[in-house]
Amino acid sequence: MAPSATTTETVVRDPATDPVSLKLDSGPVEDDAQDPFATGGVPYEGMPKFDDLYKKRQWQLEHMAGAFRVFARKGFTEGAAGHISVRDPVDPDTFWINPYAKHFGMLKASDMVHVDEHGQVIGGARSPVNTAGFMIHSAIHKAHPRVNAACHTHSKFGKAWSSFGKPLEILSQDACNFYQNQAVYSRFGGVVMEKEEGERIAEAMGDARCVILQNHGLLTTGSTVDEAAYLFTLAERTCEVQMRIDATGRDKIIVDDEEAAYTAKFNANPTTLYTDFQPDYEYEVWMSNGEVCK
C-alpha cells in the first residue's frame, strides 16, 4: 500500500478560484490511448499493434534483450542474479526468461529461453535458467494474468532501500509513478528456491506494479517489457533520491494526494511508460548496430 501523500503543512484551497484544486481529473488513461505528452499535430507512433502473434513474439524478444542492455549500462548486474520474464503471446501459459549466468550486456533476442509452467525449456536458446528467477516469475505470471512482463535485479539502491521494509514516499513528480502503485513484501524468506516463496511474493504484490522485497531488492511488472523495465529504472533512481533526501536530515514536503493521483494518471499509464523506455531502447539498438535484435 502506498504511503499517505500528506504535506507537512496544511494548505487550504478554494476550488472556485484555485486551478490546482479538487477539480483535477485523476481518472485512468486508457491503455491504448495516444501518448498524452506528444503534441504539435503530429501523432507519436507509440506501441505497434500485431495481427501475427509470432511477429509480436519477436518484437517482445527484441525489446526484452534491449531491456537487459539498458540494465547492464545502468549497473544493475550482480553475478548471475537478476531476471526479466515476458509472457509468450502465442502460448500465454508459458514465458521467456534470460539464460542462466550470462551478462546482461551481452544478451540478444536469440539468447532468450522459452519455458513452460514447470520450468522446462521448450524453445528458444538451449540454456538452463535461474531457479530463483523461475520460482518468482512463474508465480507472478500465474497469479496475475494482467502481467505480461516482470523485472527483478539486485540493483544497488533498491537493495539498500529494501532493508527498511517500507514503501517509497511521494517526494517528486517522478515518484508519483508509485502513488498507490507499490507494495512491500515484508518477509525475507531467503533465496527463492521453493515455489511457496514465489507465491507469497506474488500475493503480496496485489495490484501494484512495483514490489519492494525486504532485504532483497526491487521487482516491477507491466503490460509490456518496456513498461516494466522503465518502472524498474525509475524505482531504482527513486530509491537513490529518497535516501539522498533523507541523508540531509531536513524536513520533507510530500506531494499531496490530489496532485499525486493527477500526475500518476498521465505518468504511470502503460502508454506513457512504454514511450519513456524508448529512448534507452533505441540507444541500445544504435550502440549495438542492431546486434541486440538478432
Automatic annotation (TrEMBL):
Instruction: State the source organism's domain of life.
Output: Eukaryota
Stretches the record annotates as Disordered: 1-38
Q: Where is the Class II aldolase/adducin N-terminal domain?
A: 62-243
Q: Which InterPro entries does the record match to this protein?
A: Aldolase-II_Adducin_sf, Aldolase_II/adducin_N, Aldolase_II/adducin_N_sf
Give the GO cellular component terms, alphabetically. Answer: cytoskeleton
* One Pfam family hit: Aldolase_II
The biased composition feature labelled Polar residues covers 1-10
Q: Which GO terms describe its molecular function?
A: actin filament binding
Tell me which PANTHER family the record gives: ADDUCIN (PTHR10672), MEIOTICALLY UP-REGULATED GENE 14 PROTEIN (PTHR10672:SF25)
Please state what the protein is called. Answer: Putative class ii aldolase family protein
Organism, as annotated: Phaeoacremonium minimum (strain UCR-PA7)
